[in-house]
Amino acid sequence: MTETLVLQGTDITEAFETHHISQRAEQMLPKFYVRQATQPRNVRFTFHEHGFYRTLKRRIREQLDHVDPAPKVHSRRILDALLGAVLVTAYLAVRHESFAIGLICAICVNATIIAAHNFLHQRDNWRMYAFNIAFLSYREWRVSHVISHHLFPNSVLDMEISSFEPFLCYLPWADLKNSFQRYGSWFYGPFIYGSIFLSEYLKRLMDSFSQGKNRFHLDDVIPFLLPAFMYATNPDRVAVILQMWLFVVLIASFFFGLIGLSAGHHHPKALHSGDLFPYVTLGIDRAK
């Protein structure tokens, strides 16, 4: 109820339009009508009935019953295989005290989280919990990533842009970053990548104390299942388990940042707010 009161009056037009392909939710809206909005919308996106987006939704709605389910099954098998690979490599890394195998385990953990990302976009399912395997929270990422980033990617409204500032400034605005932020990030950026996972957990811990409200849920114990498995299969190597677990989490976090931030979302060819739109690439004559 508290969250509802805090969010009362918030413009969620984009979230509503993109998350409800069918018309059932829209048909329920008149029951909750209060009044016309008194303030202009935050963004200039339009959703006219015969505009681009509504037309696209209608056409997609007509095709949903004909979508081939095979890729969905394949995606599930990939994630299941990755979870199995995490357990096998975690066991072998501790058994042989091998950080080389631990590196493979970290790569598998990172791949598992990336694959589990597909499932936190869906309705609640058990595979979405795999996203929490290394201290991330599918609950928080449904807000910062699914609702914020996917609706307003690489813009000033994207929480995944502002959350890394002032250390990593991805928008191409000269007054947003000084020389140290621009060039120093080449050197300290990898350390930030390595701290993403642990910092997410510490952030929830600090918020719980500072706000006086528990920010944790039962699924926040999932990150501790991997070291528990390591201990169950190698109970006589506690010190090795702690070292290997920390190594796996840090390296997996580094690869997550390297792939997700540098190579993926913020590659130099990725469009950001403030960039010049690549008209030439799209074959559009700017003079027209």
From TrEMBL:
The keyword Transmembrane applies. Keywords: Membrane, Transmembrane, Transmembrane helix. InterPro entries: Cyt_B5-like_heme/steroid_sf, Cytochrome_b5-related. The keyword Ribosomal protein does not apply. The chain crosses the membrane at residues 78-94, 100-120, 238-261. This is Fatty acid desaturase domain-containing protein. It comes from Anopheles maculatus.
